[in-house]
Structure formats: C-alpha cells, structure tokens
Amino acid sequence: MTSPSTRQVILPITGMTCANCVATVERNLKKVEGVKQVVVNLSSERATVEFDPARAGLTDLIARVERAGYGVATGKAEFALRRLADDNDARRLEKALRRLEGVVEVQVSVATEKVHLRYIPTLLSQAEIRRAIAAAGFETLETGEEVEDAESQARQREIAEQKRLLWIGLAFTAPLFLLSMARDLHLLGAWAHAPWVNFLMWALATPVQFYVGQQYYIGGYKALRNGSANMDVLIAMGSSIAYLYSVAITWGVLPGHVYFETAAVIVTLIRLGKYLEARAKGRTGEAIRKLMSLRAKTARVIRDGQEIEVPVEQVQLGDIVLVRPGEKIPVDGVVIEGRSTVDESMLTGESLPVEKGPGDTVIGATLNRQGMLRFEATRVGKETALAQIIRLVEEAQGSKAPIQRLADQVSAVFVPLVILIAFLTFLGWYFFGAPGDLTRALINMVAVLVIACPCALGLATPTAVMVGSGKGAEMGILFRSSEALERLGQVQVVVLDKTGTITQGEPQVTDVIALGSWDAESVLRLAAAVEKGSEHPLGAAIWAEATRRGWTLGEAAAFQAFAGEGVQAEVDGKRVRVGSARFMQRHELDVTPAMAIVERLQEEAKTAMLVAVENELAGVIAVADTLKEGSLEAVREMQRMGLRVLMLTGDNPRTAQAIARKVGIEDVLAEVLPEGKSQAIKALQQEGHRVAMVGDGINDAPALAQADVGIAIGSGTDVAMATAPVTLISGDLRGVPRAIRLSRQTLRTIRQNLFWAFFYNVILIPAAALGYLNPILAATAMSFSSVFVVSNSLRLRVTR
C-alpha cells in the first residue's frame, strides 16, 4: 500500500530486451529525486513506480526512461468537439486536460474543432478524457468505436516493426548466405572467387548490419552510456567483429576468407528470435485482454422517465439500469425489480447460473439469462468488480517473485562476464589453441558473444507469473502478488475456518427446548430480542427465526457482547444471557440440567446455545449450518495432493467433530476464540509447517495475515477489500485445491525455465569458447532460447 504522501504509477515501457534492460530502467528511475520504489517487469514490460509527487512528476519519470534509451508506450486520441467558441476556450480546455494524470501532450484546434492527445494508457482511459472535456463545459461527438487498448496497439506496432525489419533482413541475408555457401562448396565456378564478389557480399551485408541491426547499436550505446551492458552490446560486438574483419579482407588489409554472411545471419536470426518472442509474449497477456473484452459497451438507463441507451462509461451512481434476457449487465448494482438467473462464470469460474431477485447484487460483465432485471447502479467505472479484478491481476503480473532474485543477481554481472570470457577465448585461441590464426580466434570469440542469452534468464520468472496469474483470474482466483502465487505452491498444511468456508455460513434454528417452567416461545422471544441486529451468524439465525414467525420483539438495553462466548442484555426489565455453557458457568450458573440435551444436539452437528433469564436456565436453542456443495470434494482433493487439512472453529468440540467427520477432516481445533486463531496458525508454523489459512477475509483477518498464505473465500464483488494475498471470487471451496495446483504448476514452470536458462548458458558458452559452435549455430540457439522459455510458460494456459 502507498502512503498518503506518495503516488504510484504504472508505466508501459518499450524497447526492453533482457534482464539487463530491466536493471537499467530500475536504476535510472531510482535516480529521480523523490522516487521511493521501482519494480520493472520484463514480461509485462511495465514499471511500477512509487514516488513523492511534491518532488517528482510524471514528466520527470518519462524523461528519465527516455534518457536511459527506452520509451514509454502512449496512446493517441482525437475528439471532435462542440461548443468550442474561440482561442480562449481552446486554451482553457488544454489547461484542463493537462491537469489529468497521464496526459503527455495535448493540442486543441479551434479551426477544426478537434482535440488531439497523447496519453499513457495505464494511467488514463478515453472515457476519463471524455468526462474531463464534459466537466470543462464542452461536448465530444461520437466518431465511431474507439480503440481503448492503446497499450496493446503500441505493442502491436512494435511487433509489426520487428516483422518488417525481419523481412528486409531475409531479403538481403538469403542471397548472401546462398552465394557464400555455394562459393565455399565450389558450385559456382572460378568467377565466384573474383575480388568483386567480396564487394557484392559487402553490399548485401551492409544494410543488414546497419539498418536491420540499427537497434542493437543504439541500444548498446545507450546501455554503455548508462554504465551497464545488455544483450544489444553482445550482438553489436559479435556481428561487428565478423563484419569489420570481412571489410578488412575485402580491401586487402588482411588475407583470408570473408564472413559477411556470418554477420548478416547473426543479425537476421536474432531479429527472427525477437519477433517470435514478441509474438509469444503478446499471448502471455491474453487473460487481461479477455477480461477487458467482457465489458459491456452500452447500457440502457432510465433518465427523466425515458429509457435511453448510453455508452457504459456514462452510467452514473444511482442510475436505474434495465437489462433484458441475453444481455450483459453493464455495471455493478442492486436489483430493485424483476427475477432472473445470471451467468457469472466469466468472473467466478462457477458454471451454474445464480438466481437474482430484489435486493440481490449483480456484477458488471456477467450475462443475464432469463428474466428482465431493473437495478440501481452502485459501482461504475474503475470501482466495478471487473475493473478491480483487472487492476489486481495487473499488479500481480507487475510484481517480482522471490525466486526471481537469483536470476536478477546473475543478470547484473552476466554481460560483462561474457565479454571477459569472449576476450579470454580470443587470447586463448590466438596464442595457444591455434597460434597466430586470427580467423579462428575471432570466429570463436564471436560465437561466445552471440551464444550468451541474458533474455532467457530475464523472462524465466515473469512470463510464467503473467500466464499463471492470468489463468487464475479466468478460474476465479485472484493473486495479489507474484510472491503469493509462488508461496501457495509451497504450503504443506491448509487450515479451514468452519463457518462460511466449509459450511454455508447461514445457520438456521432447528430446535428450541424449554427447561423448567419456561415455554419454547418465551425462550426464543427473549433470545431473539437480545440478538436483534446481531452480525454473528448464530445470533442472526435466532433473530431471523423470530422475524420469520412475525413476532414483535421487546427492546434490549445495556447490551454486552463477550467474544466467542455469548451476549447479555436487559429485556423487559430482566437480564437475559445467550451463549455457551462456558459463558453460563463464568456467570456462576449451574448448567448440569441442560448438558445431556446439549451433548445430544452436538452429536447431531448442531450448535447448542443456552438461554438464561436472571440466574435461571430457561432453555436450549440449537442452530445448524449446512455444508457447502463441494466441501467434501475439496477436502478429499487437498488430501490427495498430500496436504494436511485442519478445521478451525470457535464451536464446541462435539459439533466441530461432527462437521469434520462429514467432510473427512481428522484434525480439528475447536473452541478457538477469534483472537486465538492467529496463535493456532503460529503454533503450526513453529512446528516447521508452511501454512495456508482459508477464511472469509473479515472475521479471520488476523489469522489470514499470520498464515504464510491467506486465502479469502467468497468475497464476491468486494475483491479489493480482501486483505488476503489470494482471493477466491466464488464461495466454492474447490477453488482452494485449484489455486494450489495452479501455484505448483507455475512454480514448476519457473524452475524449468530457470534450469533451461542456466543450463543453456553454462553448457553452451564453454562449448563456444572451446570451438565446438560456429557463430551461425550460436545465433540460432540464442534466438530460440528465449522463445522456448516463453512457450513453456504459455503451457500454463491449459491448466485445469
């Protein structure tokens, strides 16, 4: 969380190719005065920056990124305007728009009555720009459908540029390579060995070297200027050595064979690898794009008694919205009229439609199935559940997992180390391996430079995290950070809260048993009067039963609650207590006459509460909660996965054991007070276990915070309210084994990626240094190493 004196922005960065680029961007942004924290992610190509707005601004951050040799992706928008009278209006509108966070450039033209903007799409949307224009007193005209995903557009332009350069590279490299190979194999006759052929090869190689490979020179120069070295430095050095050596031979400065085709093939193959990598990386963000595409485009609202259709961005809080069968619900709200079933599977992962009626909440982007609904909009724009889900997923994808630290440490010294190995390779071959053979020494040196791949190291973790967290969102599982995604897969013990997690959390009164001279109706009336308005599920059940019977209840005074034990209040001048046997004994009441009844009810998996009036036991009220569908299946699945499952409850041991038996749980921690839940988790951790706690995210907040990973279940539309690192949008306990399985598979993928990245470099760099790889093979291996890592991460999309 950011403090009130700091702001957090997410900048989409362009031009990053490897882990060294990440380090360069992070280091440069940290140099801006007022910047407190920076996290740069190579896979999502985003920088999350926390800074003091009094000491630094957005323009300072963008300027620093550009000075480091990288760019910030921007979107372009153009709006036709009404009510723009003169230059004063134009200046006033420009001033208003410049105040918006995320606007980079704005120009208002009175002549054309248009406004042109450049903006950062992670900070600002076109809908917000339209609202700002309206607030300034102007009107925007509809100009057809706008493309909101400006960041995606910027990435697509980057991919298109990579493709264009690749084709240009192939157009020159293919004939050059064929000519060189045919000459070496003596397929072309004596003319192919004439001096002018070398000049022809030089002419074919030069556009590839300095036009197709221009990015590597610019990127390498900027990296060196910033005091670091990246992949661009290695490629520029490797290809330039082969190219310049061949130029020297062409002009007769040195004797020997030209290697223009080697230089051209290196540049073109690396370009091919980068193009394929960019396309694959584009697919890692598919989950976010899928979520964005769920949004309804328009909404039907009632205004001034008229039914009108407006863009969804123009729906306001309190609007009455109509949704017909088969239509998407545009925003979050509460049903005021009508009944229907709603398909929420796109957000919760639950396949069964949910019945909705007056008073029920509906979530934007879900699908209305049968009836017509009229509802009041309660959350719009960035406050809707879908918008919050998208933000949470983006934050998780932009964070760094702990397992990435090793790769970051290696990447920091990787390129300088490779350059050193390449230099030593040259000296070793020139003076010892093949004394005096400059060609052999240079070729092996080039092979070392181009085989080294810091990209695979940099992409190993973030691509897997990006795909894993995106897949989680599709399944109704939200990870707040990549650390949560990693740690969940390492848990050994899962602790489940009983009420609302294993059970429905909506207990009902099943038995009212009067004692002594009391009758059942009086006992329930008095208990309900004490529990009126109670937020505790058991108390609410007693109050609900009295309400169902239509009773008018007496007023309770001097109300007191004793956490985990019971409540007491004055009703009609009498002190009434409702609570556990322990609560009654603490107030010196003899509970012996009721214990046989209490034990019988507890054996039936019911929670028994004693009711006392003054100092006399008046009766026993039993409340039972039903098991959630899927609880038994979820527990069995977790046990099959080798996890130890415990149940934690404030209920008495007999009732707790009865519920536990129904779902197959052997370990039960009963009669645990709310403040004792975190202590119970701590005790398990002290035994050396990694513990996940599953609860409702409200009553269990301390326990969720104490656990290695807290999982809030069934938070519904309040996804952003949950403090837990993992949130299951639906209340289905089967989401817990799904989340753990996804985490384990993501962790396994990260380890595979890291193993490949390290194994590749550790094995192939020495092989190149020893002369077992020529530069063309080295460039081929290098260009496909990062493609392998990204493709391996994409396999997570088929996780179930």
Secondary structure layout plus pairing:
Blueprint: E1 7-14, H1 19-30, E2 35-41, E3 46-51, H2 58-67, E4 71-72, E5 75-82, H3 87-98, E6 103-109, E7 114-119, H4 126-135, E8 139-140, H5 150-184, H6 195-212, H7 214-225, H8 231-250, H9 260-284, H10 286-293, E9 298-303, E10 306-311, E11 320-323, E12 332-337, E13 340-343, H11 345-348, E14 354-356, E15 361-362, E16 367-368, E17 373-379, H12 385-398, H13 404-433, H14 438-451, H15 454-474, E18 477-479, H16 482-488, E19 493-497, H17 498-502, E20 508-514, H18 520-531, H19 537-548, E21 556-562, E22 566-571, E23 574-579, H20 581-586, H21 592-603, E24 607-613, E25 616-624, H22 631-640, E26 644-648, H23 653-663, E27 667-669, H24 674-686, E28 691-695, H25 701-706, E29 709-713, E30 726-728, H26 735-769, H27 775-794
Parallel strand pairs: 19-26, 19-28, 26-27, 28-29, 29-30
Antiparallel strand pairs: 1-3, 1-4, 2-3, 5-7, 5-8, 6-7, 9-10, 9-11, 11-17, 12-15, 12-17, 13-14, 13-16, 18-30, 20-25, 21-22, 22-23, 23-24, 24-25
Helix pairs in contact: 5-6, 5-9, 6-8, 6-9, 7-8, 8-9, 8-14, 9-27, 10-15, 12-15, 13-14, 13-15, 14-26, 14-27, 15-26, 15-27, 16-26, 18-19, 21-23, 26-27
What does this structure look like?
This protein is of the alpha+beta class. The chain has a seven-stranded mixed β-sheet with strand order 18-30-29-28-19-26-27, sandwiched between helices. A six-stranded antiparallel β-sheet has the order 10-9-11-17-12-15, with no helix packed on it. The protein has a six-stranded antiparallel β-sheet with strand order 20-25-24-23-22-21. β26 (644-648), α23 and β27 form a beta-alpha-beta unit. α6 (195-212) packs parallel to α9, α13 packs antiparallel against α14 and α26 (735-769) runs antiparallel to α27 (775-794). The longest helix has 35 residues, at 150-184. Residues 143-147 have low confidence and may be disordered.
